[in-house]
Design a protein that fits this description.
Keywords: Chromosome, DNA-binding, Nucleus, Telomere. The protein has 482 residues and is α+β, with helices and mostly antiparallel strands. Strands 16, 17, 18, 19, 20, 23 and 24 form a 7-stranded mixed beta sheet that branches. A hairpin with a 2-residue loop joins strand 4 and strand 5.
């Protein structure tokens, strides 16, 4: 480092006594938000810093500049910042350090585990530093080496498994992909290795069972191409988080793809029965320390490696499935396993919920066709919408596979089959988890809370010239009990 003027760096606790005066300080960054525009025409970067003299809750630092390129770009929590000519201000019974690049300056150094004394980012091309700076950096690195790292969690932090509609919370998650869907709206695809809660569906008595049959058009697999989906984890929910931000601005807010971040003060909603995250104008993106990122990565990937932990977290361990399959010894696959499988045609065993059936009326499940002898015969053709924490797919019950599924109720003219139709309706209602209830206002409703079932699914294609584009799914080797 260059030799130069020996600045008098104050411990943060002492500097806070110099209200409305400019001071020179060093600090360890324990909180950082990417630059964003202010209500004026400039940009602001906000962070929290601390040192040995003041580490709870830390000093809030506001850095202003004419554009974001001039603001500090912190790589990771725990890095060290040197500040010259920052003003100490009182704000709502607390203290802020305010820097403006017009008269202030900063240097950023690697923190814990770092060895270099050359800053990786500076506010100005020229700067001065002495051996005294090296002593301070060494002291902060040694002290912070044994300081308990922020886990990223607080009273507001919840995993994807704990999200609730209309409640604001913080989410520590891995950024998998970012997608701009319009000039003003972008989507962040995030994951933490846990499963979003399964949804109940409320229906009016006269609504049919296909009310949610088309929600797949709003789902994850409909919004992204296969080559992107194949990069996603096959266990745990990938949550789409919507933000009213242009893609370029959003990318500046994020530390990068495949990095863990904390999304602060976000909320959730359901759209056609599918969970969506929402970032509002008060939501923020915070980076995490390397140690915290490593811990989250380790904890989440552990689930991918175990057969037992790959199962849906909301599925009872001691469950009584209402189906039996011909593939009892086959390992369970998630729906994302199926979607991203390397072969177009394959057979799988799944643990899923059936959330919709098309046609919506059981009496329309069977149609007529001509058999090999040119005689009319009835056959089942039903499309079920399957759901697990990773995805949703349409899977068809067709002909002999459907006969096996509805064992004891062969395809027929269901409109005139009397008691057989009533039994079949009862079985399908059980499959969809339909229960009759009455609201507080006395209105009759149907609650759909489908049970978890085992089923066998095979993939196939209908156009040999475009097998992936024409890929479909069909249920086979499965019987609905009762």
């Amino acid at each position: 480092m260059e030799e130069g003027e020996l600045y008098k760096y104050m411990p943060i606790k002492f500097a806070m006594a110099f209200v409305n005066k400019k001071v020179d300080i060093y600090g360890v960054v324990i909180g950082y938000e990417k630059p964003k525009p202010t209500k004026r025409s400039d940009m602001i970067s906000t962070m929290t810093i601390m040192d040995m003299s003041y580490h709870s809750p830390g000093l809030r630092l506001l850095v202003f500049a004419s554009d974001s390129e001039k603001l500090p770009r912190v790589k990771t929590i725990g890095d060290i910042i040197r500040l010259h000519r920052v003003k100490i201000e009182v704000h709502k019974d607390g203290f802020n350090a305010v820097a403006n690049i017009r008269y202030s300056s900063f240097l950023l150094f690697e923190g814990r585990g770092g060895t270099s004394y050359i800053p990786y980012h500076s506010s100005h091309d020229k700067f001065t530093a002495t051996s005294h700076d090296e002593e301070i950096i060494n002291s902060l690195r040694s002290w912070f080496e044994n300081f308990p790292i922020d886990s990223g969690k607080n009273d507001y932090t919840v995993p994807i498994k704990g999200i609730r509609q209309g409640v604001y919370f913080d989410l520590c998650c891995k950024v998998l992909f970012v997608h701009g869907i319009s000039k003003s709206v972008s989507i962040i695809y995030v994951w933490d290795g846990t499963d979003a809660p399964p949804k109940e569906f409320v229906m009016k008595p006269d609504e049919e069972m296909d009310i949610h049959a088309d929600q797949l058009e709003e789902s994850l697999i409909a919004s992204l191409p296969r080559n992107i989906l194949c990069k996603f984890p096959c266990v745990g929910t990938v949550l789409r988080v919507f933000t009213e931000m242009q893609i370029d601005e959003l990318l500046r807010q994020l530390p990068g793809i495949e990095r863990w971040v904390k999304l602060r003060n976000m909320t959730c909603r359901t759209q056609s029965g599918i969970w969506e995250g929402v970032m509002t104008h008060t939501s923020k993106v915070s980076i995490l320390s390397c140690q915290t990122e490593e811990r989250y990565e380790r904890e989440s990937t552990e689930r991918l490696e175990s057969e037992s932990t790959r199962l849906p977290q909301w599925c009872p361990k001691l469950r009584e499935s209402i189906t039996v399959t011909d593939c009892e010894g086959v390992r369970f696959s998630t729906l994302m396993d199926i979607i991203t499988h390397s072969q177009v045609t394959y057979k799988f065993r799944c643990l899923v919920r059936v959330i919709a059936a098309l046609p919506g009326k059981v009496e329309e499940f069977a149609g007529q066709r001509l058999n090999a002898e040119n005689h009319a015969e009835y056959f089942y053709r039903v499309r079920l919408t399957l759901e697990d924490p990773t995805a949703q797919i349409h899977a068809y019950l067709y002909a002999e596979d459907a006969d096996k599924f509805f064992t004891g109720h062969p395809a027929a003219d269901l409109r005139s089959s009397g008691s057989s139709l009533n039994v079949l309706k009862s079985k399908v209602s059980k499959l969809l988890g339909i229960a009759e209830c009455t609201s507080e206002e006395g209105e009759k409703r149907r609650i759909c809370n489908p049970p978890w079932i085992e089923c066998c699914v095979k993939s196939y294609y209908i156009d040999k010239h475009s097998p992936w584009e024409s890929r479909r799914y069909r249920i086979f080797g499965t019987t609905l009990k009762g």
